[in-house]
Amino acid sequence: MIIANELTKRFGDFTAVDAISFEVSKGEIFGFLGANGAGKTTAMRMLSGLSKPTSGKAIVAGYDVYRENEQIKRNIGYMSQKFSLYEDLTVKENIRFYAGIYGKSNQFIKEKTERVLKQLHLSAEADKLVKSLPLGWKQKLAFSVAIFHEPQLVFLDEPTGGVDPVTRREFWHMIYEAAAEGITVFVTTHYMDEAEYCNRVSIMVDGRIDALDTPQQLKKTFSASSMDEVFLKLARKATRAAD
Amino acid sequence: MNAVEVKNIKKKYGTKKSGITALNDISFSVQSGELFGIIGPDGAGKTSLFRILTTLLIPDGGSASVEGFDVVKDYKAIRKRVGYMPGRFSLYQDLTVKENLDFFATIFNTSIEENYELVKDIYSQIEPFKDRRAGKLSGGMKQKLALSCALIHRPSVLFLDEPTTGVDAVSRKEFWEMLQRLKQQGITILVSTPYMDEASLCDRVALVQSGKILSIDTPEQIVASFEKPLLAVKSDNMLQLLNLLKQSEWVEDAYPFGEFHHVVMKGEFKADLSAYLSSQTSAFEMIDANPNIEDCFISLMKENDE
Fold it and tell me: Which CATH number fits domain B4-221: 3.30.300.230, 3.40.50.410, 3.90.1580.10, 3.40.50.300?
């Protein structure tokens, strides 16, 4: 689903992303970790077709990041903690708006909206403004909206920051289900227990990918008892200041 | 005398009919010199509570005092004695590092030189950049400057509102090490955080959710009060396993927990559950687990919902 080869981004003489290479397969939950300023956001922007790489290659959902970035955008979903839904639109309006942008038919939108709202137990709130919903509901709704158009791949940028521990787990249950349906999930998080929920995890340090493996194997390699320890061991080596 | 005393504090925003209750009858006290954690997700009421205690917001009901002074009547006395680091970076972006610190020192009729010893540990880390504008600092450096500015007038009580939110695991660890050293100087510290794992670094914690305190105690005692048997289970197909566990009659609650799923049992049914899982799935691993603060929070949240 993603093939990155020596992917690099320079801003002036600063190398934000330094020749990263990795592959993500279909239906995989891929954790993309790194300290603040390690280059995660820049890498994600290149992979989602928003920013042209300086050098290297990347194919996302079968499309080239240099030439076919418009097709990439059409085939992916994106959600972050900071930006996801329009607070002044209702639940239903948000779904309609996003599905409309992705060119879904009225018929498709109508049928799927009912189904999604039912799954989220939000049917009674369909006509309420998003800003009136508790944060946890918003985040779950935002995820459903991000995959509403049935993308092949979804990018989640710190989707669970500040969310309570119960909702955080309900959120991960939704991620598991999406992956089981074949949607590839590319996720960043500061919660190290969530790194364990991923099939594979990469850890970025100073623009490079310093480790990439299953959580089990990473713990073995770094003789650590938790992903937290693995992360600390790697990130401590960083010489670059955080953003 | 307690450093902070909170009695039946209430705060509501918006109109009577469609308002949001930020704080619903909260009471607790913090002893002098304590490192006290307010642990809860966004929307729990942490910021409202801090703004009331730093005299920036007036409560709708109840009373509170800081160092013996009333938060409404004696607000001027409190402002002299507390340091406050808001959740959002609120220093002057157009002033340099040193200018910001100078400014805050001057407001409180003191100077950097006079209290340098107190902030040295933290400020020395950003001093090489003292002529850089605050707006141009990295996240971690901004955080250190904000803490220095909150400390420069030698407050006796320090309020830190989510100082580690959005900060990576390494910087979080360093920040808590700084707090431990400040505590040794005798400063009372109230710190809020959405990260459950930070609870164990506090002397005592209040777990808060939707404007209410779920529990208040030492982290050890909160964990010890988790009474139900807890198991950790994993298999090759974690989604299927979770769905199986949720359906089981012996299971009160099951949720992902790192590498494993945590399973709160209704009683001593480990053997029964093991037999049931064997009949449904091929390979799985099941061990006894020790609860941590997050297990307690989840269990208290669900009790509270019922």
Answer: 3.40.50.300
Q: Which parts of chain B have pLDDT scores under 70?
A: 16-18, 306
Beta-sheet pairing, A200-205 with A29-34: parallel
Q: Does residue A242 surpass a pLDDT of 70?
A: no
The pLDDT score that the predictor gives to residue B17 is 65
- Tell me the nearest-neighbour CA distance from A26 into chain B, angstroms: 16
Please tell me the CATH code under which domain B227-290 is placed.
Answer: 3.30.70.100
Q: Is A135's Cβ below 8 Å from some Cβ in B? A: yes
**B1 and chain A: CB distance < 8 Å anywhere?**
no
Mean pLDDT of A117-135: 90
**CATH superfamily of domain region A2-84+153-235:** P-loop containing nucleotide triphosphate hydrolases (3.40.50.300)
* Mean pLDDT (whole number) for A4-27: 94
Domain assignments of chain B as residue spans, ordered by start:
4-221, 227-290
DSSP A191-207: -HHHHTTSSEEEEEETT
Residue whose tokens read 């002044």: A88
Interface confidence (ipTM) of the complex: 0.80
Residue type, A103: G
The domain ranges of chain A are 2-84+153-235
Question: B257 to chain A: which residues are within 8 Å by CB?
Answer: 193
**Chain B: residue whose CA lies nearest to A159:** B166
pLDDT digits (tens, 9 = 90+) for A35-89: 878 889 899 999 999 999 999 999 999 999 999 999 999 999 999 877 679 999 9
Nearest residue of B to residue A136 by CA position?
B42
| Nearest-10 Cα torsion for A93, A96, A98, A102 | -170
pTM of the model: 0.86
**What is the end-to-end Cα distance of chain B in Å, rounded?**
37
Across the interface, of A37, A196, A243, the residue whose CB is closest to B259 is A196
* Predicted confidence (pLDDT) per residue in B6-28, tens digit: 999 999 998 766 678 899 999 99
